[in-house]
Amino acid sequence: MLTTLGSPIDAGIVGAAIVLPGVFGAFAGGVVIDRIGPRRTSVLADVLSAGAVAAMPLAAMTVGLGLPLVAVLAFAGALLDAPGATARQVILPDLAAPAGVSLERANGIFQAIENASFVIGPAIAGIAILAVGPLGALWIDAASFVVCAVLIRLLVPDVRPETEEGRADVAAGLRALRRDGVLRLLTIAAAAGNFVLTPLFVVVLPSLATSEGDSPAVLGAMLAAVGGGMVVSSLGFGVISRRLGRRLILAGGIVGTGLAVGLLSVVHGTPLVLGVLFAAGMMIGPINPLAFTVMAERVPAATRGRVFGAVLGGVLVASPLGMLALGAVSDAEGPRVAMLASAVAFVAIGVVVGLRQESRELDLQPTLDPPAN
Asked: Considering only CA atoms, which of 56, 324, 360 is closest in space to residue 196?
């Protein structure tokens, strides 16, 4: 958007158009998943996303790529991302057991691959933009959605749990969160963590790199260090969950992330910074596999889409609010003060999670009852 429209403000508007619809898409997508099945939802979301992305270079070649059209297409594409991502997470528990893979290991591998894509994807995007230009890169992006849709359609079985017609409403996910204290604790903890974690990577680290004269390559190395730590610990989640217990992993991971971020606020020198960021990634990595494993164990298959969608929607709400808050702190007091504020928040969240009675149930695997009305 910067290369095509020329203004950082325009790029910011497009960025907002990408972030905001994810919340609605997560809630509404859960209903679609439970109505037509996760595989169909994943394929449909990817096909429509491919169309939304492909429309951008197509418009640039024909009618012109103005800001209103870009914002509309970005909104449409982002609206479909959350249902597709949720659908793939929803179907995972139904595939793990027939494959002879434990739920912990399946979620660990799934999250490790996703974390690796966050490290590799931006590098591929940068190379594509240099090689074929921004519009050519968008064609490649659109094609990647088509490849994903074809792979899911051909290689993933169509798992659709029985559900009563007319009852797949958005409120079912919210009701499940209200009834289940463990799910509610995970959602609140994830939202609070996302409030400080997302802006740490999107706002504070870039601000630190800029204020201290680091090159974009150093910023890329910082983000890669975090991603690398997350990949390693995600892969090890299945092993450490059996040895340490989920309650300790969740509370300890959040507190450990806070301590690492606090250390990051005072260390200097690229090697030390990268080492601390890798350690922070190691602390963060097991949290998502743990949360999705517990959710899959506690949520009946027939309502899994709506409950997962409600959790994801609640977590996504926190990101833009956190960007505003920590962005303001970073502008007023500097990025290191913003890091220190993030560290304090992480430690407080981890302590509260560890002390809550609901966290004691994390190591229990409940027998799922049919969903209540």
From this structure: 324
